[in-house]
Amino acid sequence: MIVKLETLLDRSEKNMGSGIHPVVKESALEMVKRAYQEGIFVQISAGYRSMEEQAKLYGQGRLGYIYDGKNYSDLSKPRVTNAMPGQSYHNYGLAIDYFIVSDDGKNAIWTVDAKWRRVAAIGKSLGFAWGGDWSSFKDYPHLDMTGGLTYSQLKAGTKPRLISKVNGTTPPAKQVESVVKDTPAKDSGNQTIKSIQRTLNGRYSTKIDVDGYYGPNTKKALIKGFQTELNKQYGAKIKVDGIWGPQTKAASPNVREGAEGNITYILQAALYLEGHDPHGMDGIFGSGTEIAVKSFQRANGLSADGIAGENTFAKLFG
Ligand SMILES: [Zn+2]
Fold first, then answer.
1. How confident is the model at residue 137 (pLDDT cuts 50, 70, 90)?
2. CATH of region 191-317
3. What whole-number distance in Å separates Cα of residue 203 and Cα of residue 273?
4. How buried is residue 168: exposed, middle or buried, by Cβ count under 10 Å (0-12/13-18/19+)?
5. 239-264 burial, b for 16+ CB within 10 Å, e for fewer?
6. Residue 68's CB: how many other CB atoms inside 10 A?
7. Which of 83, 168, 189, 284 has the fewest C-beta atoms lying within 10 Å of its C-beta?
8. pLDDT cut 90: percent of the chain above it
9. How is residue 127 annotated by DSSP?
10. What is the pLDDT of residues 12-56, one digit of tens each?
11. How far is the centre of ligand 1, averaged over its atoms, from the C-alpha of 143 (Å)?
């Protein structure tokens, strides 16, 4: 069962709280919708946080922390934040946090992978700034719209003028790089994904952008590589079109521990791109690959036997 969009929107709305700025709320829900249309299931975990709630968080792991005459010290819990009340955009209803959920909507997934970054890119196209672009310390779940105001301006009661961008569009994944480049982040594009894209171009003469982002073109190139190998190694006679269909599925071999070669490489790349890191793209099916296959199978409702067969490939490529 695939989680319903309405479920994600309901949970997100509840988690943002009533103090959330209307434009932030509208944009956050739009982000959840657009991600959903791309098959990425995302939920907002937090939004508005009152000064008292912030004091409670700040008091965790701090001795004798007093705010507004009240002791918020809680040494039974670890420190979670360096932001005192008023020093977080959440306190003004201008920030949200998000996470990815499993396809059935039951589990939270905190892996910062291609999907996670794609959500950030969608958020940015809607006017959010992303905590993953911060240089001092990175806060990957965090998105905010500050209207250019500082904490002290906000504290003094200045209201931000936020402009909703929900009527605009988000550039498709392959164009994401230009959006990301608006902020001079040095980690623009994922290095492993770049290496996969370079390998596919070199091995299969695909002509995809080496941008470090996983989008439809990279997926298509990966399937082309898979089809080429099936023809070459197994004598299959399938069209190398980069489109997953019944013939490609039927020709899929069982790839298991001990396997070596280009098909194993494609499997490793596909697992990585779907957020299940095999810890090595060496074309050798070892324990790292097996763990990643099992984790992918579990996340997709398949029996987790660690052998990639037609059903696993169908979930990876379909
Ligand atoms: Zn946050």
1. confident
2. 1.10.101.10
3. 18
4. exposed
5. ebebebeeebbebbbebbeebeebbb
6. 9
7. 168
8. 61
9. T
10. 999 999 999 999 999 999 999 999 999 999 999 999 999 999 999
11. 6
Same fold for the pair 5-49+88-180 and 191-317: no
Structure token pair of residue 131:
């905590």
Task: Pull the structure tokens for residue 191.
Answer: 């290095």
Tell me the mean pLDDT in the region 177-185.
38
Query: How far apart are the CA of 71 and the centre of ligand 1, in A?
Result: 24
Map residue 59 onto helix, strand or coil.
helix
Q: How many angstroms is it from 293 CA to the middle of ligand 1? A: 32
- Residue bearing tokens 């171009």: 201
Centroid of ligand 1 to alpha carbon of 132 (angstroms): 11
98 CA from centroid of ligand 1 (Å): 8
CA–CA gap between residue 127 and residue 91 (Å, rounded): 19
Domain locations along the chain: 5-49+88-180, 191-317
Q: How far is the CA of 141 from the centre of ligand 1 (A)?
A: 6
Residues in Cβ contact with 195 at an 8 Å cutoff, skipping those fewer than 6 apart: 281
Residues 96-105: pLDDT tens digits?
Answer: 999 999 999 9
Q: Assign 179 a pLDDT band (cuts: 50, 70, 90).
A: very low
Q: Where are the alpha helices (DSSP H) in the chain?
A: 5-16, 22-37, 51-59, 114-125, 151-155, 176-180, 191-204, 216-234, 246-251, 262-273, 287-299, 310-317
Please give the CATH topology (third level) of the domain spanning 5-49+88-180: Muramoyl-pentapeptide Carboxypeptidase; domain 2 (3.30.1380)
Q: Is the pLDDT of residue 189 over 70?
A: no
82 or 190, greater pLDDT: 82
Residue 174 three-state SS: helix
Ligand 1 midpoint to CA 46 (Å): 7
Which tokens sit at 256?
């298991």
Distance of CA 97 from the midpoint of ligand 1 (Å): 5
Per DSSP, the three-state class of 99 is strand
